[in-house]
Amino acid sequence: EKAGHRHFMAKEIHEQPQTLSDVIAAYVDGDRIAPPVAYDFAATDRIQMVACGTAHIACQVAKYWFEQLARLPVEVDIASEYRYREGPVGAETTALFVSQSGETADTLAALRYAKGKARAVVSVVNVAESSIARDSDVAFPILAGVEIGVASTKAFVNQLGVLLALAIHAARQRGEIDAAREADLVATFRLLPGILAQALATEPRAEELAARLAEASDILFLGRGTMYPMAHEGALKLKEISYIHAEAYASGELKHGPIALVDRTLPVVVFAPMDALFEKTVSNMQEVMAREGQVLLVTDADGAAQASDGVWEVLVMPRVDPVFAPLVYAVPAQLLAYHTAVHKGTDVDQPRNLAKSVTVE
Length: 361
Ligand code: M6R
Hints:
By secondary structure, the chain is α/β, with parallel strands linked by helices. It contains 13 helices and twelve strands. It has helices at about 10-15, 15-25, 55-70, 80-85, 105-115, 130-135, 155-175, 180-200, 205-215, 225-240, 280-290, 300-305, 325-345; strands spanning about 30, 30-35, 45-50, 75-80, 95-100, 120-125, 140, 220-225, 245-250, 265-270, 295-300, 315. The strands form three sheets. Strands 4-3-5-6-7 form a five-stranded parallel sheet, sandwiched between helices. The chain has a five-stranded parallel sheet with strand order 9-8-10-11-12, with helices on both faces. GO terms for molecular function: carbohydrate derivative binding; glutamine-fructose-6-phosphate transaminase (isomerizing) activity. This is Glutamine--fructose-6-phosphate aminotransferase [isomerizing].
């Protein structure tokens, strides 16, 4: 049932090119986005996204997409905070809940708080017959299939895939992009399963690097733009299954405190594809190196050619349009965590103290 893999998590990581193809099959029609259920993003003035854990990180990535592509303001909340804060919910607000299981207690309670106040309660869920899906006005399926590993992998990538499809769709509905730009984005979207497969081919190198990360007691993850939430995903996956203390910071926040942690014993994983923010991230990375921090730079061939000098290690990812980079950089986040955990001998599929679905508060 693990299809030759040692753990369900490994199997699920390797399923991602296929499961992302299933999102494309369901959300793309020719050269446009055509979601399986209708929702009019032109009739809303903001989105409140609410979720827990990895699903919350998917929302943080999606904020960049909806704001940049569709010019639609997005607030992102952790469900356990949102449900008790009793904040205002505008009548034109879309309340959007993301959950793999569709049964997470805090997310469900947050949904019930927003219901009747928001313009609509929308969800992005894996389990179609779940409570969250049933209680939503509109439920977008992520089609990842059953996910068994406690650490979410393919569900996260499919959450990203669906949220990106919806952001492109919203941009078109709101007149922020034209048909030609939509067709361009869709053409790249269709290449993504193949690019994920290329990213997965870096596994032997990730495994090598993980053996070194396994010796650390603390690890920092840095990134800018969408790579900032991806740094959070890298840190969350790592602590969840390897039990190594990890933290994520926006690269630009480093000098506001966390740089005090840096010394020669600290690995610092930097997610930096070649994009408009690359040089800014590199200059933060150099600040780490000046304090003898051990930088593991995760970038593409262009980034590696420009910025490998003096870094501890480089992990080279395939090139991708920056809009789509979070889906690709999910792979090294997962592989580094997975192999670090395997190296340490922890229980990868059933990490201590954790449950797959958190149905109590
Ligand atoms: O089923 P949900 O998506 O609502 O679950 C939310 C979190 O419990 C979940 O993403 C958790 O953070 C994962 N174990 C992370 O890998």
